[in-house]
Design the sequence.
């Protein structure tokens, strides 16, 4: 504790305390992944979260190139961004920031808290509603009405027959 920080108050240089860390990691680890392999690891600092691939969880037969592993990590990164904005932070994401460490997928830096959550925060309630769909994809085309649907949270409703956005 510095001389300028009153006792009982959080340190101003630490934005990600235990409660924030738990919220962020719980959201990120609810991301979908190939065969539920969850091929990611996280490291949390006072003002950032690092996302790493976990090569030991790569499914070599189903994903020999590691492409699905990276797609899965991308899903975790998106959930992390949603939770970060839900907490009122404005995340700055650096993707593949270190050529010397190919396992480091992204670093999410947080700055000061804003008085209002960011635009992605509207997706936060849906993180807990994660569902698994093991049905095969069909060759059926997506209706053209879905191509121009708005992408802002709260402005989309699902069609019972297609599961695609409708305005």
Sequence:
């Amino acid at each position: 504790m510095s001389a300028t920080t009153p006792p009982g108050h959080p340190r101003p240089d630490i934005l990600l305390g235990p409660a924030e860390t738990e919220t962020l990691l719980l959201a990120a680890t609810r991301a979908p992944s190939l065969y539920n392999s969850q091929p990611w690891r996280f490291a949390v600092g006072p003002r950032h979260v690092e996302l790493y691939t976990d090569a030991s969880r790569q499914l070599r037969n189903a994903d020999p190139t590691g492409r699905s592993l990276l797609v899965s990590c991308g899903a975790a990164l998106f959930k992390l961004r949603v939770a970060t904005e839900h907490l009122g932070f404005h995340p700055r994401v650096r993707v593949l920031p270190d050529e010397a460490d190919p396992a480091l997928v992204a670093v999410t830096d947080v700055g000061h808290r804003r008085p209002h959550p960011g635009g992605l925060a509207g997706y936060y309630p849906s993180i807990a509603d994660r569902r698994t769909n093991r049905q095969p994809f069909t060759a059926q085309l997506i209706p053209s009405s879905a191509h121009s649907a708005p992408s802002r949270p709260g402005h989309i409703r699902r069609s019972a027959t297609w599961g695609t956005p409708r305005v």
User: Anything to note?
Assistant: Residues 67-86 form the longest helix (20 residues).
